[in-house]
Amino acid sequence: MADRALGLIEVKGYLGAVVAADAALKAANVSLLNIETVKAGLNTVQLIGDVSAVRSAVDAAVELVQDKPYYLASHVISRLDNQTDLLFVPKRNSKTAKKEIASTAETIPSEKIEEKPQPVKETKAKPAEKLEGETRTYTREKLEKLKVVELRSLAYHQEGIRLSKKEIKFANKKLLVETLMETIGEE
Q1: Looking at the DSSP assignment, which residues form a beta bridge with residue 43?
Q2: How much is the pTM?
Q3: Contact residues for 39 (Cβ-Cβ < 8 A; gap 6+)
Q4: Which of 17, 66, 93, 179 has the most CB atoms lying inside 10 A of its own CB?
């Protein structure tokens, strides 16, 4: 079995990391382990594979990016010990496993949630239509009990209201109630 090696290429910016990773992956039979953001703007491309393949991949990437302003450093760690797998592989697998579990858990309840609100939305729409049809029967107390969203809906559909659509959009509850009372009181 061939010895494994870890190749590290440090660059500024994500674009530089992508360029270096692309060159390295095209040059030799290596695998991209990760592009890790060390801190703001600094990225490390991590490559893994056989010692000679990683050396040639890192050399090819360095040859391409060394004249660019985003190249900082590179290093190849030959003959990695098996205990170093704990640093790289399990973290990545546990994240993907957690994402798969979370996405599976999210899809099942979201389907149920999507089915339940549909009847609720229909029941909310029917009273709103009734409210629009009964605009002349409102008292100040009834209007003050309504939500601002419902008041805005009434104001949009009310003819002869003195507020523009933009003013209705940003109006508070007090202004909407007063304006609706003026308009309904005139009719």
Answers
A1: 11, 37
A2: 0.47
A3: none
A4: 17
